[in-house]
Inverse folding.
């Protein structure tokens, strides 16, 4: 029997992504087999689908850094047939077949059992973007950021990380400032829980190495000059969780925020985070994320639609979260 999958192939410098029929024999090694229900499209998926270097490291490969589904076979001590599981990152879409297929075979150490209140579709509405947002929030909490400390800035607010960060932070009682390049989406951001909307242009152009403080903390998915300006305007003993590079990989700032204001820059890696961090993040998402509000941010597509969505996300044209029904 065969199943549907998107397969990325490369000939010289050209990468193509095609919907094909695969067989179980083409799956990679692993001790857990899964019937996949849903995947999603993150910014990193857009990079992979476009053939950008640094994501897919071997070809041919099934892209998709996320999947959620049900275990069908397992020789791993932690999982049995029938378990509902989620997988974010690890080797998916880099060296191991990813989530854009109806079946997967993976290393059980990469998996997390889904909390009972989160369906497999909910899990992919959250996806790596939402799971990363929660890792950011946990990092801010670890550094002593509480709602009474002051507002929290969220950059890239219309994206997946930004949308979930706003939802969770506002529910926890933080005053959220949302930075976006699409001010026409202000109503959307306000509905998520943002108390104030600012134009990303105020952060994306070069500024002073340190400036008047405007927020106690920030979740940044943009990087580059934006991150430098965010740090420069963070209050004393504040914290910034950095998880993205939409503007660039450079950081053209200074040490002033760190040595004059004792600001903490917390780097967030979602790909290789240990199991304990993953499980804690998913438990907190089950508790602190309003799934009904999250549903208002979701667009659902099929496997054949994924390449187009990947292009749109790189162009900044995707709002919220995209769920991929791999069986639709």
């Amino acid at each position: 029997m065969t199943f549907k999958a998107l397969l990325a192939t490369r000939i010289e410098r050209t990468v193509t992504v095609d919907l094909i029929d695969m067989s179980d024999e083409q799956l990679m090694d692993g001790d857990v087999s899964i019937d996949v229900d849903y995947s999603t499209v993150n910014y990193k998926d857009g990079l992979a689908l476009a053939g950008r270097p640094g994501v897919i490291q071997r070809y041919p490969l099934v892209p998709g850094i996320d999947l959620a589904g049900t275990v069908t076979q397992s020789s791993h001590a932690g999982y049995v047939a029938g378990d509902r599981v989620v997988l974010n990152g690890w080797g998916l879409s880099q060296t191991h077949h990813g989530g854009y297929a109806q079946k997967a075979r993976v290393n059980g150490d990469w998996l997390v059992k889904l909390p009972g209140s989160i369906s497999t579709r909910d899990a992919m509405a959250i996806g790596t973007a939402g799971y990363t947002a929660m890792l950011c929030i946990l990092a801010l909490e670890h550094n002593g950021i509480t709602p009474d400390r002051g507002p929290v800035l969220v950059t890239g607010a219309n994206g997946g990380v930004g949308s979930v960060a706003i939802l969770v932070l506002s529910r926890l009682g933080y005053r959220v400032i949302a930075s976006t390049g699409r001010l026409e989406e202000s109503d959307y951001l306000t509905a998520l829980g943002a108390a104030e909307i600012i134009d990303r242009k105020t952060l994306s152009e070069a500024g002073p190495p340190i400036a008047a403080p405007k927020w106690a903390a920030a979740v940044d998915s943009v990087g580059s000059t934006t991150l430098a300006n965010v740090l420069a305007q963070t209050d004393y003993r504040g914290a910034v969780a950095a998880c993205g590079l939409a503007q660039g990989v450079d950081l053209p700032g200074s040490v002033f925020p760190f040595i004059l204001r004792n600001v903490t820059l917390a780097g967030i890696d979602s790909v290789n985070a240990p199991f304990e961090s993953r499980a804690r993040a998913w438990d907190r998402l089950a508790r602190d994320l309003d799934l009904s509000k999250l549903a208002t941010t979701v667009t659902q597509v099929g496997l054949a639609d994924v390449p187009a969505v990947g292009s749109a996300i790189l162009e900044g044209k995707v709002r919220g979260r995209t769920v991929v029904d791999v069986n639709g």
